[in-house]
Design goal:
Layout (H helix, E strand, L loop, with lengths): L3 E9 L3 E6 L2 E6 L13 E10 L2 E7 L2 H10 L7 H8 L4 H10 L2 H4 L7 H11 L4 H6 L15 H14 L3 H12 L6 H15 L1
Antiparallel strand pairs: 1-2, 1-4, 2-3, 4-5
Length: about 200
């Protein structure tokens, strides 16, 4: 089992990043690919290999705590790797853990693919079992990174990434007008803003 891979991020797409290490390009699914940036600096990605009869996914996370929460989430009936990635994409895992501990179903059903039954199952399976993660998970930086020049493609890249996580066109059409008012954000910042708006909608 791979614990982590160190290499260079050579590609960032709405669904995955490519991490080059020793001449091999690893295609890695992540909660928010735009949290990574193409760079000549070596980056460390914590990994999890998900194997089924018909597929293999290599998943990657910026922190060890993110990965451990992902592993807890996929033990819940009704939550697969894609659903767990969508939950982690919000960038605020401490809020997810807090909602589970408070038995806050209203918050949990805001994520794609999580209905009341799955939210109840999350609480039943995970409440009281995430305390160690709660104290260690870092809250995201609330400061958004601004670009000196607006990138017209950044918003569309963010929309594609959100679709890949399972958000519908109808949900995205409700938040897009607000996002369009922010003309100088990069893709990661658009993602953070959009996810915050989406979690307030339902």
């Amino acid at each position: 089992m791979y614990d982590y891979i160190k290499g260079y991020v050579t590609r960032v797409t709405p669904e995955y990043i490519t991490l080059e290490q020793s001449g091999v390009g690893w295609q890695i699914m992540t909660p928010n690919p735009y949290a990574f940036h193409q760079s000549e600096e070596v980056q460390q990605v914590f990994t999890y290999l998900h194997v089924r009869e018909d597929m293999q996914w290599l998943l990657g996370f910026k922190t060890l705590e993110q990965r451990e929460l992902f592993k807890k989430l996929i033990t819940v009936s009704g939550i697969g790797p894609k659903g767990a990635l969508a939950i982690l994409a919000s960038g605020v895992p401490a809020q997810v853990i807090g909602a589970i501990e408070r038995e806050d179903e209203t918050f949990l059903v805001k994520f794609p693919g999580v209905g009341k039954k799955t939210a109840r199952q999350m609480i039943l399976d995970l409440k009281g079992k995430l305390g160690d993660l709660f104290t260690e998970i870092e809250m995201p930086d609330t400061d958004v990174t601004l670009l000196s020049m607006a990138e017209n493609d950044s918003l569309e890249e963010a929309m594609l990434a959100l679709q890949a996580l399972g958000y519908s066109q109808r949900e995205l059409s409700k938040v897009k007008p607000t996002l369009q008012k922010e003309e100088e954000l990069n893709t990661e910042a658009y993602m953070k803003l959009a996810l915050g708006l989406l979690l307030k909608q339902k």
